[in-house]
Amino acid sequence: MAEPIYYVDRSDIREGKLAEVKNGMHDLATFVQAREAQLIAYHFYIDESESTMTTVAVHPDSASMELHMELGGPKFRLFGALIRMRSIDVYGRPSAVVMDQLGQKAEMLGGGTVTLHTLQAGFSRLHPPRNSA
49, 64, 108, 127: which could join 59 in a potential S-S bond, CB 3.0 to 4.6 Å? Predict the structure, then answer.
């Protein structure tokens, strides 16, 4: 079984762009939901000060993330005038292609860092436990 990939990015919301960021988040979430049935989770968050946007995604494998980057690329570009990417953190084992795509995304959206974290221990319960009755 392939190892899931957890993706977290953080961006500063440019001054006066909050409403556009919120609209863009809803548009992108709807776009992804309609085209990427394999994606386990895809969420956007804004902090209490409404100055930082965080994206959290869970992909079942690297192929899912590669597809997401290919399909979403044109949509990501629309955020360039709205945010400044601070960081992308990836947890798991994405392909070299995905890491290259993420570097390009970070550069396009403000030059944030891309950090890869490798699993050392733990488990996931992506499906509820079955009754053993």
Answer: 64
Q: What would the two tokens of residue 23 be?
A: 């609209």
HSE, CB side, 13 Å, CA atoms: give it for residue 114: 17
Contact 32, 42 (CB under 8 A): yes
Give strand ranges (E) for the chain.
Answer: 5-13, 41-46, 52-59, 83-91, 113-117
What is d(CA 94, CA 104) in angstroms, rounded to the nearest whole number? 15
DSSP state of 113: E
Phi-psi domain of 46 (left: phi exceeds 0; alpha: psi -120 through 50; beta: other): beta
Task: Report pTM.
Answer: 0.89
Cα–Cα distance measured from residue 114 to residue 125, given in angstroms and rounded to the nearest whole number: 27
Structure-token match 């930082």, residue found: 52
pLDDT of residue 53: 98
Q: Which residue has the tokens 């992308």?
A: 88
For tokens 């049935």, the residue is: 37
